[in-house]
Design brief:
Blueprint (H helix, E strand, L loop, with lengths): L9 H4 L6 E6 L2 E4 L10 E5 L3 H22 L4 E2 L4 E2 L2 E7 L6 H16 L2 E8 L1 H7 L4 H8 L19 E8 L5 E6 L16 E10 L8 E9 L3 H17 L1 H7 L3 E2 L10 E2 L1 H20 L3 E2 L5 E3 H7 L1 H4 L8 E3 L2 E2 L5 E3 L2 E5 L4 H8 L11 E10 L15 E11 L4 H18 L4 E7 L10 H16 L5 E4 L9 E7 L5 E10 L1 H5 L4 E2 L5 E2 L2 E6 L4 H11 L13 E5 L5 H13 L4 E3 L6 H10 L4 E5 L1 H6 L1 E6 L4 E6 H13 L5
Parallel strand pairs: 14-20, 22-23, 29-30, 29-31
Antiparallel strand pairs: 1-2, 1-3, 4-6, 5-6, 6-11, 7-8, 8-9, 10-11, 12-13, 15-19, 16-19, 17-18, 20-21, 21-28, 22-24, 24-25, 25-28, 26-27, 31-32, 32-33
The protein binds one RNA strand of 75 nucleotides through strand 10, strand 11, helix 7, helix 17 and strand 31.
RNA sequence: GCCUCUGUAGCUCAGUGGUAGAGCAACCGCCUUGUAAGCGGUAGGUCGUCAGUUCAAUCCUGACCGGAGGCUCCA
């Protein structure tokens, strides 16, 4: 309970030194300049809080827009919301933004901030706003749009709530009116709340008005803003760390894979070292699947159209498929059809093929759950602008399985499946997860509501029983059924969608799948689609970025490099290497003419887990010396102990 | 698919309207070495592709093929 004189505002309660940027009055976020009344429940919002950061960034977006309009008076304002780690502002511009302009805009922003402008809120009527914004066609569209229409989602900060407001930026020394923008706010009290050394214009790009492909393409300016210089530095460091870990870069540096232009966009080739990692990943997965009761199958890469007509893919996802090859047609001289041709498609999914295996003969309830597994290579015609290294490729191999079971078996099957998935991901070194439940997309689905409800409920229950955080992804499901996906956090905190588990009542119907029940009746199985890596290529990329190329020994393409101190120690190390090689260790001895320091440097750059160094002292005592990737060393280790240490790390799949 | 940017040696990058260089890597020598680059030499590019402008194009223009960042999309 605080007593304040009449006419007091939040600025009296929370002067700048308190670090509050806006306040919550009776549950509503408002400017600090808002007048307070007796009995109001008031709570300050600090700049470091999520809401405070959003306000800081939103206000910075205004500064960016003001700067842009000052430099480019013809710029028409679009929208300018805060986003994760920053903000953007969209403009309709006569010319696209160039890197030089971005620098100029940033300079102009600095000078606006230094001129100390206050953000003054002013409520306007619709007709006043229309008059005032006559020169801003996009803002006009916003206020004329139906308030309930779907275009006005939460990202649009301009309008919303019960009234329209305009924010005036006023020079606090001269009282001069500098700029205005339609905006629902709230904002920081004045520009000095924005630290000039903690904002940055990042980049520009094109973006459709309100994210709608059928609308105008605008220029979007991205920027970032933080409470302190250090906070921004931390963010920029994170970005550069992410860049260093980029799998496309590491893939080339470590000679793991490439995307030859001759092959085509989004189609990777694996080089020997990448091939080793991939093979080890697959081998381990195979072993675990065998132990978990999966049966291995193989299916072709192409198939006649009828199969994908039956599955519904050609109805729903023809756009995502490579166009067909028309084969076998023959014509008479007069052009009349002699022999009807057929369309063949590259498969975008494996499930229709697996269904054919299920229905190849009569199935008994005794066979269920039937788990068919395949490393199945699929091809999807991703739009040219979305292809991205191995995380969004046009050809990739799924660790794909389809489980056919009864409704009664479904819950326990899903539970054990989730255990299996999470356990396997942990073995590859990913340990931080949450689950996401994707529900029916009302625009794009097949089947009945009750089937969807059942499937969604069972999935939800089994996800909840894992005790992990569960996030809802409304409308995110595939057309044939709801799914759980496992989201993984990597070493620097980024999340990746990995495994997906989808329940499907539809394809069994379309394929008329049946099994004979114990009472002799014919019943329809339920199908579960699941991929744990998602795709091997993608999982490979995630691991590569997660480990920054420094794979744990069991996955490393070269596990040990032997480095003789002089040529005289080559034979000794070669003999040690032979011992390890016989135990299955991937070891190379560097017998080149280089000096040992250079050899260490090379091995270090290749991120080899172990360097075994040997010189006269080691030879004399039947030992070797370790150098690890972190630069530490362990000298004079008896060969038998060294072998043991390496073999142990590999078999335990630990990181070193 | 849309917008902007971009494409020179295996990699990282200079460079010019008169057909090109550096460092690293590769290869060949010399050096014989204790924890991240010893020294010297050699070789390597139709400057993404195809057109156009020009006496002349790696450079200017266009289309196409790659790539990057976004938008849209992601079964």
């Amino acid at each position: 309970m605080t007593e304040l004189p009449d006419g007091s505002t939040g600025l009296d309660l929370f002067p700048k030194a308190t670090g509050m940027v806006v306040m919550r009055v009776n549950g509503v976020l408002v400017d600090l300049a808002t007048e307070l009344h007796a009995g109001d429940q008031v709570e300050g919002v600090p700049i470091e809080s999520d809401e405070g950061l959003a306000v800081l960034r939103h206000s910075t977006a205004h500064i960016a827009a003001q700067a842009t309009q000052k430099l480019i008076p013809a710029a028409k304002l679009g929208i300018g919301p805060p986003i994760k780690d920053g903000f953007y502002y969209e403009f309709d511009l006569p010319e696209p933004l160039t890197p030089e302009t971005l620098g100029d805009i940033e300079k102009e922003m600095q000078s606006i901030i230094k001129s100390r402008q206050t953000f003054k809120r002013r409520v306007v009527t619709q007709s006043e706003a229309e008059k005032e914004l006559a020169a801003e066609p996009f803002k006009l569209r916003l206020i004329k749009a139906d308030q309930g229409s779907t275009v006005l989602d939460s990202e649009v900060m301009e309008v919303g709530g019960s009234e329209l407001s305009i924010y005036d930026n006023v020079n606090s020394k001269t009282g001069e009116h500098c700029w205005s923008d339609l905006c629902r706010g709230p904002h920081v009290p004045d520009t000095t709340y924005i630290p000039t050394n903690a904002i940055k214009v990042m980049r520009s790009s094109a973006a459709y008005w309100l994210g709608d492909q059928s609308q105008e393409s605008l220029q979007r300016l991205y920027g970032t803003a933080w409470p302190t210089k250090d906070a921004m530095k931390e963010y920029l460091d994170f970005l550069s760390e992410a860049e260093k870990r980029d799998h496309r870069k590491l893939g080339a540096e470590l000679d793991l894979f490439s995307f030859p232009e001759e092959v085509g966009s989004g189609l990777a080739v694996f080089h020997p070292k990448g091939g080793v990692i991939r093979r080890v990943m697959e081998d381990y997965s195979r072993k675990r699947h065998e132990e978990a009761g999966y049966q291995f199958v193989n299916t072709p890469h192409i198939t006649k159209a009828a199969l994908f007509e039956k599955s519904g893919h050609l109805d729903w996802y023809a756009d995502g498929m490579y166009p067909p090859m028309h084969l076998d047609a023959e014509f008479h001289e007069d052009g009349q059809v002699k022999r009807q041709g057929a369309d063949y498609y590259l498969k975008p999914m494996n499930c229709p093929m697996h269904n054919l295996i299920f229905s190849a003969r009569g199935r008994s309830y005794r066979e269920l759950p039937l788990r068919l597994f395949e490393f199945g290579t699929v091809y999807r015609y991703e739009k040219s602008g979305v292809v991205h290294g191995m995380t969004r490729a046009r050809g990739f191999t799924q660790d794909d399985a389809h489980i056919y079971c009864t409704l009664e078996q479904l819950p326990s099957e899903l539970n054990s499946l989730l255990d299996f998935v999470l356990g396997l991901l942990r073995d590859y070194g990913l340990t931080d997860f949450y689950l996401e439940l994707s529900t029916k997309n009302p625009e794009k689905f097949v089947g009945t509501d009750s089937e969807w409800e059942d499937a969604t409920r069972i999935l939800r229950e089994s996800a909840e029983s894992q005790g992990l955080e569960l996030v809802l992804d409304e409308g995110g499901a595939a057309f044939y059924g709801p799914k759980i996906s496992v989201q993984v956090k990597d070493a620097i905190g980024r999340t990746w969608q990995m495994s997906t588990i989808q329940v499907d009542f539809q394809l069994p119907q379309r394929f008329d799948l049946e099994y004979q029940a114990s009472d002799g009746t014919r019943q329809r199985p339920i199908m579960v689609h699941r991929a744990l890596f998602g795709s091997i290529e993608r999982f490979f990329a995630v691991l590569l970025e997660h480990y920054a190329g420094a794979f744990p020994p069991w996955l490393a393409p070269v596990q040990v490099v032997g480095i003789p101190i002089t040529e005289a120690h080559n034979d000794y190390l070669t003999a040690v290497a032979q011992q390890l090689r016989e135990r299955g260790v991937r070891i190379e001895v560097d017998t080149s003419d280089e000096r040992m320091q250079k050899k260490i440097r090379s091995a270090q750059k290749e991120k080899v887990p172990y360097m075994l160094i040997a010189g006269d002292e080691d030879v004399a005592s039947g030992a070797v010396s370790f150098r690890y990737r972190d630069g530490t060393q362990k000298n004079g280790v008896p060969v038998a102990d060294a072998v043991e240490e390496i073999l142990n790390a590999i078999s335990e799949r630990v990181q070193v």
